[in-house]
Specification:
This protein has ten helices and twelve strands. The protein is α/β, with parallel strands linked by helices. Strands 2-3-1-6-7-10-8-9 form an eight-stranded mixed beta sheet. Strands 4-5 form a two-stranded antiparallel ribbon. The two termini are about 35 Å apart.
Protein backbone atom coordinates (compact mmCIF):
# COMPACT_ATOMS: atom_id res chain seq x y z
CA UNK A 1 0.00 0.00 0.00
CA UNK A 2 2.84 2.41 0.82
CA UNK A 3 4.22 1.85 -2.68
CA UNK A 4 0.88 2.62 -4.33
CA UNK A 5 0.42 -0.95 -5.59
CA UNK A 6 -3.21 -1.91 -6.20
CA UNK A 7 -3.94 -5.50 -5.11
CA UNK A 8 -6.92 -7.34 -3.61
CA UNK A 9 -4.67 -8.16 -0.64
CA UNK A 10 -5.26 -4.62 0.64
CA UNK A 11 -8.87 -5.72 1.31
CA UNK A 12 -7.68 -7.82 4.27
CA UNK A 13 -9.13 -6.32 7.44
CA UNK A 14 -7.70 -6.01 10.92
CA UNK A 15 -8.33 -9.12 13.03
CA UNK A 16 -10.80 -7.40 15.38
CA UNK A 17 -13.03 -6.56 12.41
CA UNK A 18 -13.85 -10.25 11.91
CA UNK A 19 -16.46 -12.03 14.02
CA UNK A 20 -14.26 -15.07 14.44
CA UNK A 21 -11.62 -17.15 12.69
CA UNK A 22 -14.06 -18.75 10.26
CA UNK A 23 -15.29 -15.31 9.23
CA UNK A 24 -11.69 -14.25 8.59
CA UNK A 25 -10.96 -17.39 6.59
CA UNK A 26 -14.07 -16.92 4.45
CA UNK A 27 -13.03 -13.37 3.63
CA UNK A 28 -9.49 -14.43 2.78
CA UNK A 29 -10.84 -17.10 0.43
CA UNK A 30 -12.98 -14.46 -1.28
CA UNK A 31 -9.91 -12.26 -1.68
CA UNK A 32 -8.11 -15.28 -3.11
CA UNK A 33 -10.82 -15.52 -5.71
CA UNK A 34 -10.26 -11.88 -6.62
CA UNK A 35 -6.54 -12.57 -7.04
CA UNK A 36 -7.21 -15.43 -9.46
CA UNK A 37 -9.66 -13.37 -11.48
CA UNK A 38 -7.13 -10.60 -12.07
CA UNK A 39 -5.89 -10.20 -15.59
CA UNK A 40 -2.24 -11.28 -15.99
CA UNK A 41 -1.11 -7.68 -16.54
CA UNK A 42 -2.79 -6.63 -13.26
CA UNK A 43 -1.12 -9.25 -11.10
CA UNK A 44 1.71 -8.36 -8.78
CA UNK A 45 4.06 -11.21 -8.31
CA UNK A 46 4.43 -13.90 -7.73
CA UNK A 47 4.87 -12.80 -4.12
CA UNK A 48 7.28 -15.14 -2.32
CA UNK A 49 6.50 -15.75 1.34
CA UNK A 50 9.19 -17.44 3.41
CA UNK A 51 8.25 -19.12 6.68
CA UNK A 52 11.09 -19.85 9.09
CA UNK A 53 10.15 -22.88 11.16
CA UNK A 54 7.79 -25.82 10.85
CA UNK A 55 6.32 -26.22 14.34
CA UNK A 56 2.89 -25.27 15.68
CA UNK A 57 3.36 -21.55 15.06
CA UNK A 58 4.39 -22.22 11.47
CA UNK A 59 1.41 -24.54 11.02
CA UNK A 60 -0.86 -21.72 12.16
CA UNK A 61 0.69 -19.38 9.60
CA UNK A 62 0.24 -21.95 6.88
CA UNK A 63 -3.37 -22.59 7.91
CA UNK A 64 -4.14 -18.95 7.15
CA UNK A 65 -2.06 -18.93 3.98
CA UNK A 66 -4.03 -21.97 2.78
CA UNK A 67 -7.01 -19.63 2.38
CA UNK A 68 -5.18 -17.84 -0.43
CA UNK A 69 -4.18 -19.34 -3.79
CA UNK A 70 -0.55 -20.36 -3.58
CA UNK A 71 1.95 -22.98 -4.58
CA UNK A 72 4.86 -24.32 -2.55
CA UNK A 73 8.50 -24.29 -3.63
CA UNK A 74 11.40 -26.23 -2.20
CA UNK A 75 14.20 -24.15 -0.74
CA UNK A 76 16.53 -25.54 -3.41
CA UNK A 77 14.23 -24.08 -6.09
CA UNK A 78 13.67 -20.74 -4.36
CA UNK A 79 15.83 -18.63 -6.68
CA UNK A 80 14.16 -19.99 -9.81
CA UNK A 81 10.67 -19.62 -8.34
CA UNK A 82 11.34 -16.03 -7.28
CA UNK A 83 12.65 -15.15 -10.75
CA UNK A 84 9.34 -15.94 -12.43
CA UNK A 85 7.47 -12.97 -13.81
CA UNK A 86 4.19 -14.71 -13.07
CA UNK A 87 2.98 -18.10 -11.96
CA UNK A 88 0.37 -19.94 -14.05
CA UNK A 89 -1.63 -21.31 -11.11
CA UNK A 90 -1.10 -19.06 -8.10
CA UNK A 91 0.01 -15.50 -7.33
CA UNK A 92 1.71 -16.52 -4.06
CA UNK A 93 4.63 -18.88 -3.49
CA UNK A 94 5.26 -20.44 -0.05
CA UNK A 95 8.69 -21.60 1.08
CA UNK A 96 9.21 -23.29 4.47
CA UNK A 97 12.67 -23.22 5.98
CA UNK A 98 14.05 -25.85 8.36
CA UNK A 99 17.23 -25.76 10.42
CA UNK A 100 19.38 -27.16 7.63
CA UNK A 101 18.40 -24.16 5.51
CA UNK A 102 19.37 -21.67 8.22
CA UNK A 103 22.89 -22.72 9.16
CA UNK A 104 25.87 -24.80 8.12
CA UNK A 105 28.83 -26.28 10.05
CA UNK A 106 31.78 -23.93 10.34
CA UNK A 107 34.26 -26.79 9.94
CA UNK A 108 34.99 -27.65 6.31
CA UNK A 109 33.61 -30.97 5.13
CA UNK A 110 31.18 -31.55 7.99
CA UNK A 111 27.59 -32.45 7.25
CA UNK A 112 24.65 -30.82 8.98
CA UNK A 113 23.32 -32.83 11.93
CA UNK A 114 20.24 -31.48 13.68
CA UNK A 115 21.04 -32.73 17.17
CA UNK A 116 24.60 -31.47 16.87
CA UNK A 117 23.25 -28.04 16.01
CA UNK A 118 20.95 -28.08 19.04
CA UNK A 119 23.77 -29.16 21.34
CA UNK A 120 26.61 -27.06 19.89
CA UNK A 121 25.24 -24.08 17.93
CA UNK A 122 28.61 -22.34 18.29
CA UNK A 123 29.93 -24.81 15.71
CA UNK A 124 27.55 -23.43 13.07
CA UNK A 125 27.17 -20.20 11.13
CA UNK A 126 24.13 -18.63 9.56
CA UNK A 127 23.57 -19.05 5.82
CA UNK A 128 20.08 -17.63 5.80
CA UNK A 129 21.11 -14.37 4.18
CA UNK A 130 21.55 -16.18 0.87
CA UNK A 131 17.77 -16.70 0.79
CA UNK A 132 16.68 -13.19 1.78
CA UNK A 133 17.09 -11.53 -1.67
CA UNK A 134 14.51 -13.95 -3.09
CA UNK A 135 11.76 -13.24 -0.55
CA UNK A 136 9.05 -10.58 -0.58
CA UNK A 137 7.99 -11.37 2.97
CA UNK A 138 9.52 -13.35 5.82
CA UNK A 139 7.47 -14.82 8.67
CA UNK A 140 9.62 -15.86 11.61
CA UNK A 141 8.20 -18.60 13.83
CA UNK A 142 11.35 -20.20 15.29
CA UNK A 143 12.43 -20.57 18.90
CA UNK A 144 15.66 -18.69 19.46
CA UNK A 145 18.29 -18.16 22.14
CA UNK A 146 21.37 -15.88 21.97
CA UNK A 147 23.64 -18.88 21.44
CA UNK A 148 22.06 -19.56 18.04
CA UNK A 149 22.91 -17.66 14.83
CA UNK A 150 20.47 -14.98 13.67
CA UNK A 151 18.22 -15.08 10.62
CA UNK A 152 18.27 -11.39 9.77
CA UNK A 153 21.02 -9.11 11.06
CA UNK A 154 21.13 -5.34 11.23
CA UNK A 155 24.29 -5.49 9.12
CA UNK A 156 22.45 -7.25 6.28
CA UNK A 157 19.55 -4.80 6.42
CA UNK A 158 21.83 -1.77 6.37
CA UNK A 159 23.71 -3.21 3.39
CA UNK A 160 20.51 -4.15 1.54
CA UNK A 161 19.03 -0.65 1.95
CA UNK A 162 22.31 1.24 1.44
CA UNK A 163 22.30 4.32 -0.79
CA UNK A 164 18.51 4.29 -1.13
CA UNK A 165 18.30 0.74 -2.48
CA UNK A 166 14.93 -1.02 -2.29
CA UNK A 167 15.51 -4.77 -1.81
CA UNK A 168 12.83 -7.32 -2.55
CA UNK A 169 12.39 -8.24 1.12
CA UNK A 170 10.44 -5.35 2.56
CA UNK A 171 8.11 -7.00 5.08
CA UNK A 172 8.94 -9.17 8.12
CA UNK A 173 6.31 -10.76 10.34
CA UNK A 174 8.23 -11.64 13.49
CA UNK A 175 5.82 -13.85 15.40
CA UNK A 176 8.58 -15.09 17.70
CA UNK A 177 9.20 -11.45 18.65
CA UNK A 178 12.54 -11.80 20.42
CA UNK A 179 13.82 -8.25 20.84
CA UNK A 180 17.00 -7.94 18.74
CA UNK A 181 16.97 -11.73 18.52
CA UNK A 182 16.78 -14.00 15.49
CA UNK A 183 15.46 -10.99 13.57
CA UNK A 184 17.84 -8.35 14.89
CA UNK A 185 15.84 -5.45 13.49
CA UNK A 186 12.96 -6.34 15.82
CA UNK A 187 14.04 -3.54 18.13
CA UNK A 188 10.70 -3.36 19.94
CA UNK A 189 7.43 -5.22 20.28
CA UNK A 190 4.20 -3.74 19.01
CA UNK A 191 0.52 -3.75 19.97
CA UNK A 192 -2.54 -4.79 17.93
CA UNK A 193 -3.69 -1.17 17.49
CA UNK A 194 -0.27 -0.18 16.10
CA UNK A 195 1.18 -3.47 14.81
CA UNK A 196 4.00 -2.35 12.52
CA UNK A 197 7.07 -0.19 12.43
CA UNK A 198 9.79 0.55 9.91
CA UNK A 199 13.32 -0.18 11.04
CA UNK A 200 14.98 3.02 9.91
CA UNK A 201 18.41 2.14 8.51
CA UNK A 202 19.75 5.65 9.04
CA UNK A 203 18.94 6.02 12.74
CA UNK A 204 18.56 2.37 13.76
CA UNK A 205 15.27 3.29 15.42
CA UNK A 206 11.71 2.11 14.95
CA UNK A 207 9.39 4.45 13.07
CA UNK A 208 5.77 3.42 13.62
CA UNK A 209 3.72 2.72 10.52
CA UNK A 210 4.68 1.37 7.11
CA UNK A 211 6.54 4.26 5.48
CA UNK A 212 10.27 4.85 5.60
CA UNK A 213 13.64 3.58 4.45
CA UNK A 214 13.92 0.08 5.85
CA UNK A 215 11.91 -3.12 6.31
CA UNK A 216 8.39 -3.03 7.74
CA UNK A 217 8.30 -5.22 10.85
CA UNK A 218 5.20 -6.68 12.50
CA UNK A 219 6.19 -7.67 16.05
CA UNK A 220 2.99 -8.06 18.07
CA UNK A 221 3.96 -10.20 21.06
CA UNK A 222 0.42 -11.12 22.20
CA UNK A 223 -1.07 -12.36 18.92
CA UNK A 224 -3.52 -14.83 20.58
CA UNK A 225 -5.44 -11.75 21.75
CA UNK A 226 -6.21 -11.01 18.12
CA UNK A 227 -8.57 -14.01 17.98
CA UNK A 228 -9.88 -14.12 21.57
CA UNK A 229 -12.83 -16.41 20.88
CA UNK A 230 -10.71 -19.19 19.37
CA UNK A 231 -7.86 -18.66 21.84
CA UNK A 232 -10.19 -19.00 24.84
CA UNK A 233 -11.91 -22.07 23.44
CA UNK A 234 -8.61 -23.74 22.55
CA UNK A 235 -7.01 -23.14 25.94
CA UNK A 236 -10.13 -24.23 27.82
CA UNK A 237 -10.30 -27.49 25.85
CA UNK A 238 -6.63 -28.12 26.55
CA UNK A 239 -6.84 -27.31 30.26
CA UNK A 240 -10.16 -28.91 31.21
CA UNK A 241 -8.83 -32.51 31.35
CA UNK A 242 -5.94 -31.33 33.56
CA UNK A 243 -7.94 -29.47 36.20
CA UNK A 244 -8.50 -32.55 38.31
CA UNK A 245 -4.81 -33.45 38.26
CA UNK A 246 -3.90 -29.89 39.24
CA UNK A 247 -6.30 -30.02 42.18
CA UNK A 248 -4.93 -33.36 43.37
CA UNK A 249 -1.27 -32.38 43.22
CA UNK A 250 0.68 -31.69 46.42
CA UNK A 251 2.20 -28.36 45.46
CA UNK A 252 4.32 -28.28 48.61
CA UNK A 253 6.39 -31.19 47.29
CA UNK A 254 9.73 -30.57 45.52
CA UNK A 255 9.34 -30.12 41.78
CA UNK A 256 11.16 -33.39 41.03
CA UNK A 257 8.52 -35.38 42.91
CA UNK A 258 5.54 -33.26 41.92
CA UNK A 259 2.85 -35.66 40.66
CA UNK A 260 1.56 -34.09 37.47
CA UNK A 261 0.98 -35.34 33.92
CA UNK A 262 4.10 -34.79 31.81
CA UNK A 263 2.38 -32.29 29.52
CA UNK A 264 1.38 -30.15 32.49
CA UNK A 265 4.64 -30.53 34.37
CA UNK A 266 6.64 -29.38 31.35
CA UNK A 267 4.55 -26.21 31.32
CA UNK A 268 5.29 -25.21 34.93
CA UNK A 269 7.49 -22.12 34.76
CA UNK A 270 7.79 -21.31 38.48
CA UNK A 271 7.45 -23.68 41.43
CA UNK A 272 7.65 -22.54 45.03
CA UNK A 273 9.09 -19.19 43.99
CA UNK A 274 11.85 -20.49 41.70
CA UNK A 275 12.16 -21.02 37.97
CA UNK A 276 12.01 -24.67 36.97
CA UNK A 277 15.00 -26.19 35.17
CA UNK A 278 13.48 -25.89 31.69
CA UNK A 279 12.95 -22.16 32.18
CA UNK A 280 16.22 -21.18 33.82
CA UNK A 281 17.11 -19.18 30.70
CA UNK A 282 14.53 -16.59 31.76
CA UNK A 283 16.76 -15.61 34.68
CA UNK A 284 18.91 -13.49 32.39
CA UNK A 285 15.86 -11.62 31.12
CA UNK A 286 14.62 -11.01 34.67
CA UNK A 287 17.96 -9.56 35.69
CA UNK A 288 18.00 -7.32 32.65
CA UNK A 289 14.51 -5.96 33.27
Amino acid sequence: AADGIVTPLTEIKRAFAYHDLEDAKAHLKAIGGHLLRQAPEERVGPLVLGIAGYGNVSKGVQEILDCLPHTEADVADLADAAAQVSHPSAPLIKVVFKEEHLVEPIATGQRFELQRYYDHPEEFRSIFERHLPHLDMLVNSIYWEPRYPRLVTKAWVHKAFAHGARPRLRVIGDISCDIEGSVEVTVKSTEPDAPTFVYDVESGNAKMGIEGMGPVVMAVDNLPCEMPRESSEHFSRALTPLVTEMARADWSAPFESLALPDSLKRAVVVHRGKLTAAFQYLEAHLKAS
